[in-house]
Design a protein that fits this description.
The protein is an alpha+beta fold. Helix content is 10%, strand content 17%. The strands form 2 sheets. Strands 1, 2, 3, 4, 5, 6 and 7 form a 7-stranded mixed beta sheet that branches. A two-stranded antiparallel ribbon has the order 8-9.
Length: 278
């Protein structure tokens, strides 16, 4: 299982720990002897702390080693990490840790061999080694236990679905149209008038002629009907977006902590970010 540096795994780990930084802690023995300081932490794929990277200062020398998290008791209030009996001999036997070292199974095995008690067992699961060493990873379980409180939350998402479609087209309709055109037509009116007085005409001067004709041209208007195409109306088609808020209501569950004590005990309850206890 690969291990990751704390900041590589979670860049905002300080926010998760409520501003506390495990890298700012000093390492002491239970007897109050300063061993060194925490330089980093290594976590697994699930974010569980596996090792603290310790910059040791025993006997005036500097050496970075890995401390299994089960041997550490973290006290953020005192800004200290306490370790159960880390000896100079163990520091000398531990492989030195460098920034470019890949902590693989062989490296972890060398670290465990220094810390492991004689009662530890080595088991194999389909060719992969898995060390059952509670003294290294679960030693402080009675001092630091984590109970996760869960709650349900409503998560709202939006899906864009097709509600329908509008088709705009055109077709041809026919109708009978009427138009009125005023027309003018000429006609000839012949009036024959009887003189009211008789006029004597000199017969010697009068010459009777046959074939005398009076010619008058008569005109009339005729209708000329034709069709022409014009734009009657323009239709513009566009979309607009209307906004609406849909409210949903569901019953969600939340776990609350019940604390029951027996005997005369002092129990202090503090608020710490969830899922951050080591």
């Amino acid at each position: 299982m690969p291990l990751y540096k704390l900041e590589d795994f979670e860049p905002s780990y300080r926010e998760i720990f409520g501003g506390d930084d495990v890298k700012a802690l000093e390492l002491y023995t239970e007897g109050g002897v300063r061993v060194g300081s925490v330089a980093d932490a290594l976590v697994d794929d699930d974010g569980r702390f596996r090792y603290l990277v310790i910059d040791t200062t025993l006997d005036g020398g500097n050496k970075k080693i890995l401390l299994p998290i089960g041997l550490a008791h973290i006290n953020y209030a005192e800004k200290r990490v306490f370790v159960d009996g880390l000896s100079k001999e163990q520091v000398a036997r531990l492989p030195e840790y460098h920034e470019n070292i890949v902590v693989n199974e062989d490296y972890e095995n060398n670290v465990r061999n220094v810390y492991r008690s004689p009662n530890s067992q080595l088991t194999s699961d389909q060719g992969r080694s898995s060390y059952q060493a509670p003294e290294l990873y679960e030693l402080n379980a009675q001092d630091q236990q984590t109970i996760k409180l869960y709650e349900e939350r409503l998560i709202a998402h939006k899906n864009r679905v097709k509600a329908g479609e509008v088709t705009v087209g055109k077709h041809i309709e026919t109708e009978t149209a009427q138009v009125s055109v005023p027309l003018q037509k000429e006609r000839v009116v012949i009036e024959r008038v009887t003189p009211t007085t008789e006029t004597v005409v000199n017969s010697q001067e009068l010459q009777f002629q046959e074939g005398e004709v009076a010619r008058i041209e008569v005109y009339e208007e005729t209708p000329e009907i034709r069709k022409e195409t014009v734009v009657r109306e323009e239709v513009r088609v566009r979309k607009v977006v209307d906004s609406d808020t849909v409210e949903a209501q569901e019953t969600v569950r939340r776990e609350e902590l019940d604390i029951n004590t027996s005997g005369n005990l002092d129990v202090n309850e503090t608020n710490t970010p969830r899922d951050t206890a080591i």
